[in-house]
Amino acid sequence: MKSCNHHFLLKTNEISAITKGNSPITIIDVAKHLGASISTVSRALNNKSDINQKTKITIIQAAIDLDYKPNFLAQSLHKGSTHTIDVIVPDVEHPFFAAVLAGIQQVPNNTGYRIIVCHSNESHHIEVINTETLMACRVDGLLLSHSKATTSFEHIKKLTEKGIPVVQYDRVDMEINTSNVLHQDFKGSFDLVEHLISQGCKRIGIMSGS
User: Model pTM?
Assistant: First the structure.
């Protein structure tokens, strides 16, 4: 009972019997290993205050010994949040998008959020499939740059209508009510040419890629 200061655990040494096979260890396995109730193990692993400290330490140590890993999907169904952000990249091999991805990855590391990266490979069809998959996985937010083939944005409107935060970067559709991150190509080019003119340049050429 919650008001009792004494908790009793029947800890066994048969870890190998529990961990054999390829099935992941569940909270039920930890409870059986200790002879404790599932609710007691759950309260300990979720750091609840209504559990004896010694019992909590014993349960946590048993979870470590059994190599228990939380089921984030199950937790998300219970808490309503997955602490997961998806990033859709149109061309992961392009140096620009590789640099963007590296920058995005730096931020969530210390916030408890995880990043899932999807590659649309410049395909509108794959981009749509990615967003539908992410909706099923209940991600907390989406960062995306559209593929070159994307001309319809109904799949993004569905996300915003469901209240999922969306940030478009680089390639954006201004008609969708989202936050956008853009770089100033026009102003940057203007400033560059203006600088060359100020240096006395008269014949200015430009070399660019595809």
Answer: 0.61
